[in-house]
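Friendly challenge for the regulars: who can give me the C-alpha cells for this chain first? No prize, just bragging rights.
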Amino acid sequence: MRKVIVTTNAPAAIGPYSQGNLAGNTLYVSGQLPLNPETGEMPEGVIAQTEQSLSNVKAIVEAAGGTMDNVVKTIVFLKDMNDFADMNGVYAKFFTEGLYPSRSAVEVARLPKDALVEVEAIAYIG
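First reply, four minutes later:
Bragging rights claimed.
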C-alpha cells in the first residue's frame, strides 16, 4: 500500500515529486529546503535554515501520523561542511536523546534556490 503525503504545513513540491510517500509503515520524506510554507521565503543563515528544513520534515511526518521519534534515518545536505557544528546544534533539538536517527551529512556543490541546507528523512510509522 502506498499513500502520497501532502500537507500545507510544509512547502509545496517545486518539481515532479511528492512531499512524502508512505509505503506500508515506511515514510519517505523528500529533501526539505528551508522554505517557509506560508510565505515561500528562506531565512538567512544555516541555523535558521536548519530550523526551517527540520520543521518542514516534522510537518510531513506529523501529516503521516508520526512524530520525530519515528524518524529512523536522515540525510543532511550542506552547502559548506564548515556549517556542520551549527547545523548539528539545531538538529539535536528536534530529536529525543537516545532515539536519534541514523544520519549522513554531506557537503554538496549547490542546493536548489541556493539554500545552505536540505534535509530528507525516512520514518517508521507503526
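The chain has two helices and six strands. The longest helix spans residues 46-63. Your move, everyone else.
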